[in-house]
Prior knowledge:
- This protein is of the alpha/beta class.
- It has helices at about 20-35, 55-65, 80-95, 105-110, 165, 180-190, 205-215, 250-260, 275-280, and strands spanning about 5-10, 40-45, 75, 100, 115, 120, 140, 150-155, 155-160, 170-175, 195-200, 225, 230, 295.
- A 3-stranded parallel beta sheet has the order 1-2-3.
Amino acid sequence: MENPTxxxxxxxxxxxxxxxxxxxxxxxxxxxxxxxxxxxxxRMEDLDPPREMAGAxxxxxxxxxxxxxxxxxxxxxxxxxxxxxxTAFTQLQQQQLIYPCYCSRKTWQQAxxxxxxxxxxxxxxxxxxxxxxHTKPPAWxxxxxxxxxxxxxxxxxxxxxxxxxxxxDFVLLRADGFWAYQLAVVVDDAAQGxxxxxxxxxxxxxxxRQIYLQQCLHAPTPHYAHxxxxxxQHGQKWSKQTLAPALDLNQRETLLRQxxxxxxxxxxxxxxxxxxxxxxxxxxxxxxxxxPHAICTE
Length: 298
Ligand code: GLU
């Protein structure tokens, strides 16, 4: 029977094809959902057309299906949800939490300090309430609090940030008119009723910003588990930039077994289809056995 208190998701960005690191995230979030008798949703994060690769979204879905990773319900496309992001943006605007920012990166970075995820915005435009007439379109930033935002991660343990010191006022709507990941992800997780987020550790640094936005929008905070990253021999995360090879569909069983090893599952028996490997893995899954340390695949 389905457990209504667990809704998980896999949220790929179609900026490239799936690779071993994304397969690990897909498999871990799938197994965690299924081990809890929960739902597992797929959301296509196609919000940044300049960075996207033609055909990647359908290729990703085809690859998930080929690995037996069957999602529940319809796939949601962020590119079709602007109205929802706009409603949240208006809600934050009414609370006077956001302001337009006309600074170019070059100008403000001269007076900024380095935080935990890049430069901390120096607050130059903080006192602007509404856009100035006849100027270029601004970016819109949210004011962040000075208190600590802390949460407990199922793999990492306790994690905290002081957003004012570590991150700074961050962008929700970019000057080029595109919604920022931080806003869209929070709005969608809330709209889709996501209760558990299992994703890569590269996003750990974003989580306090997302919890802050949940608080401002009166949305619940889901449970978080940030998975260890798969890295190459230079300690770099596998990604498009580090030339991660796309998954070879002729090697599905080998690749799934490889991912199971990284996820500390016991050796799987011989099976006929990739789906059978996943079915075997569900009762063997234990998120709490995962170590937070990066795993070198070479
Ligand atoms: N779309 C993001 C990515 O591919 C993941 C977002 C998330 O899981 O919160 O890195």
